[in-house]
Amino acid sequence: MDQEKKNTAPEEELMTEAAPAEAVEAPETAETAEAPEGPAAEGKKGKKKKSREAEALEACEAEKKKLEDRYLRLMAEYDNYRRRTQKERENIYPDAVADTLKELLPVLDNLQRALDTPCADENYITGIQMIRTGLEEFLKKMGVETFGKAGEPFDPNLHNAVMHIEDENLEKNVVAQVFQSGYRRGDRILRHAMVQQAN
Length: 199
Description:
Layout: H1 2-23, H2 30-34, H3 39-116, H4 122-141, E1 144-147, E2 159-165, E3 174-180, E4 182-185, E5 188-191, E6 193-198
Parallel strand pairs: 2-6
Antiparallel strand pairs: 1-4, 3-6, 4-5
């Protein structure tokens, strides 16, 4: 009997010694410590996501502003181009008309010289007079006016003084003699009058 008690005693001691080992909890591993769960982890992920979205939004706004500036600059350049071309188009016809009329003025001068030359043939003189009259009427229809007469005030914008005289019978700064008539169409001077200026 004593031997049986002795044999069972050590087995019971081993049982009591092994029991506490099973109750010991396993320590936390590195993976479980680094991966916290719950609202804190979700908050960190949300902040990272929001910051990326904010950066993307700022980049989009900067690109939008750049494109708007480029668009406004392009529209301003186009507006300037449109105004310039419209002005050029408006000036093409008056310039062409003025250039054409300028070329006719020497013809009119030559007809006047032919009339001033003594000639015994009355028919010839009548024919030249008719041509000159017809050309003058055409110029009037085109809005051309003649200027430059003796006695009118001298205007450097209209007259080209090629001579100067002192004459007590004439007023100061007037046209004494006209060598070549001047012509204008509206505000455009086709040819300045060639005159002699007095006093």
